[in-house]
Amino acid sequence: MKPQKIVTYLVPYCPKCGAQMVVRRPTKKGAEWDPFWGCARFPDCKGTIQIGKDGRPELPDDYNEDWLKVKEHRHAEP
């Protein structure tokens, strides 16, 4: 069995509806927008949070920090 690397990252919840958010990335080459956190309930909810230069969510001032969920992702090392 190959050793596994565990990557831990923060997943925010939508500030508008409370649903978990997902990273939205451009699908077309040359798109003129950067990845961002978008509500998983899109198009019913259009809540967004920008991704900072350090890769962490840029949370609004009134955002409840308890709404961040720590997620672990495991994958085999090459």
Task: Provide a short characterization of the protein structure.
This protein has 78 residues and is mainly β. 0% of the residues lie in helices and 41% in strands. It has no helices and six strands.
Write the layout of secondary structure elements.
Elements: E1 4-12, E2 21-24, E3 36-39, E4 48-51, E5 57-58, E6 68-76
Antiparallel strand pairs: 1-6, 2-3, 3-4, 4-5
Order of helical and strand elements: EEEEEE
Kindly state the number of beta strands.
Answer: 6
User: What structural class do helix, strand and pairing data support?
Assistant: mainly beta
- Kindly state the percentage of residues in helix: under 10%
User: How many alpha or pi helices?
Assistant: 0
Measured distance between first and last alpha carbons: 12 Å
Outline:
globular
Q: What percent of residues are in strands? A: 35-45%
What is the C-alpha radius of gyration, as a whole number of Å?
Answer: 15 Å
Mean pLDDT: 77
How does the major sheet shape up?
Answer: 4 strands, antiparallel
Parts with pLDDT < 50 across at least 5 consecutive residues:
none
Strand arrangement in the largest pleated sheet: 2-3-4-5
